[in-house]
Design a protein that fits this description.
By secondary structure, the protein is of the alpha+beta class. It folds into two domains: 76 residues, Winged helix-like DNA-binding domain superfamily/Winged helix DNA-binding domain (Arc Repressor Mutant, subunit A); 56 residues, Dna Ligase, domain 1 (2-Layer Sandwich), CATH 3.30.1490. Helix content is 40%, strand content 17%. The chain has five helices and six strands; from the N terminus they run H-E-H-H-E-E-E-E-H-E-H. The strands form two sheets. It has a three-stranded antiparallel beta sheet. Strands 5-4-6 form a three-stranded mixed beta sheet, with no helix packed on it. 17% of the residues are buried.
């Protein structure tokens, strides 16, 4: 049995969602992405947007985080390698960050406890400098 993920067909809807995400600098909800696509007169349903986003996330083509309110949001990142996000709670501005200390810590904790094949997700939330100035 293969661990490889199934190949995803390149559809017009998938391309539209990816292009839309590529234009956005912050994490966006499926509803927000759908609204942009409708504004651009794209022929796509909300269910298709959700399904496409789930598929893209599963394939590792987009990143996801869960907002404080529990809603899943999506972003097409510029890094193909493992990275973390620093996200403004006020405006959503996102910075991609490397975390070598986090990587070492995760590996050490796993090793100490006899774990292998470890993965992790670290998202850091705060208020960006621009939002601090405007308050």
């Amino acid at each position: 049995m293969s661990d490889a993920l199934p190949q995803i067909r390149k559809t017009k809807q998938r391309t539209s969602v990816l292009l839309s995400l590529g234009k956005m600098s912050t994490f966006q909800s499926a509803q927000e992405i759908y609204a942009v696509l409708k504004q651009e007169n794209q022929s796509i349903g909300l269910t298709t947007v959700y399904r496409t986003l789930a598929s893209l996330a599963e394939q590792g083509e987009i990143d996801t985080i869960r907002r404080a309110d529990g809603e899943m949001v999506y972003r097409h990142c510029s890094h193909d390698s493992h990275h973390h996000h620093l996200v403004c709670r006020s405006c959503g501005h996102t910075v991609e960050v490397e975390g070598p200390d986090v990587e070492r810590w995760a590996h050490d904790v796993a090793s100490t406890n006899g774990f292998t094949d470890v993965s992790h997700i670290v998202e850091i939330f705060g208020i960006c400098a621009l939002c601090q100035k405007s308050n």
